[in-house]
């Protein structure tokens, strides 16, 4: 589905052609065209391929989707794939945006994501001095918007980790629930890592050294995107280490809880074993036993059992077993 299509010249919109009229609009103008598509049909992609002479392999990747973040060069044209992440009820939902960048065109193809780039277009149109830089600036603006949307996700993971750390040592904590939350955080972190790490390699190719011609004038801007990705990568590594440590601590707490329960059971078992042993001794069926016919024999036996059990309880209490 076509979201937007506009031809820009000297940083201003000069016309808004449909997909069928893109090539004609470029022939009559000296600027570049910026086209945005969402979940396009095969017919739309084929039409765009004919209008802009897009590489068949890149178009095939954009049609199929499910691409790893990457940057490919086809002569003077670039094809980039990036992941769009958004929080969902069961973790992070992964969408994609594929960007074709040529000397006179930028095409963004969005799949399985509700995150649009109208704000990016509005920002670019408010800064015509930057839009005059051409498709290279638009490519930077799209990549910058994708990367900036990763920051709230890593911040949310850090905030949940902090909350888990503060409640982990509370008494009567549900350890299984804590482990499940940690595992969920690890899954979200892995999804984020799969989006960020390959994109670092993409951004590194767009500044310093050999840079594609269409991006040469924007190297400083792409270096800024690269710095943002490094910060996110560092946060991911720190959060990953925290999750590993928190999981180990939680398992240690589970072992401690089990040890305490074992101690309590052992202490009560010892108390009842002593009383059972005394009762067993006095319960033997012999004809001649001390205190067998003594009037105070039964109270004395109960008293001895109570004293021994009380002494054991006091001892175990001092040891912290009860």
Automatic annotation (TrEMBL):
Entry keyword set: Cell membrane, Ion transport, Magnesium, Membrane, Transmembrane, Transmembrane helix, Transport
Spans through the membrane: 265-284, 296-316
Membrane topology reported for the UniProt record: Multi-pass membrane protein
Classification via Pfam families: CorA (PF01544)
UniProt entry tagged with the keyword Ion transport: yes
Subcellular location(s) per record: Cell membrane; Membrane
Gene3D superfamilies for the chain: CorA soluble domain-like, Magnesium transport protein CorA, transmembrane region
Domain of life: Bacteria
InterPro entries: CorA_cytoplasmic_dom, CorA_TM1_TM2, Mg/Co-transport_prot_CorA, MgTranspt_CorA/ZnTranspt_ZntB
Cited function: Mediates influx of magnesium ions.
Annotated family: Belongs to the CorA metal ion transporter (MIT) (TC 1.A.35) family.
Descriptive protein name: Magnesium transport protein CorA
Organism whose genome encodes this protein: Pelomonas parva
